[in-house]
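Aim 2 progress update. The chain analyzed this quarter is reproduced below.
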Amino acid sequence: MKANKIVILLLFFVQISFSQTIIGKWKTIDDETGKEKAIIEIFEKNGKYYGKIIEILEQEHRFRKCELCQGEDKNKPILGLVIIKSIQKNGAIFDGGKITDPKNGKTYNCKISFDGNNKLIVRGYIGISLFGRSQTWVRDK
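Predicted structure tokens:
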């Protein structure tokens, strides 16, 4: 009986630890319109996290290029673009990297935190986090 309780408790903690990962596919929700915009796949590489646009949900934007982006991303197709770069886990949040908004081509500091197990709050900002905006991303099933 005692062994069963320990196994159940361990399974509970394993489930929590796996569900609290940003790795996976996330559906972006526009903070201004509330519309679903894209699917981003977040992956880990060399201890840092990156996010790539793998699907564009608005049909009229599927073949657009990032004309306003700077540097190596300029004029690249938005589909396949890595928009989150070099985020690191820092306690309960992920920060220290950058996020690019393909709509305006600007790159911002980025901070990501969980809102429950299946929602992320993704904040892009300039300077300090107070000066920015946040989007909710929902885990894509």
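The domain at 22-139 is CATH 2.40.128.520 (Lipocalin). Residues 4 and 10 are 10 Å apart (CA to CA). These observations will guide the mutagenesis experiments scheduled for the next reporting period.
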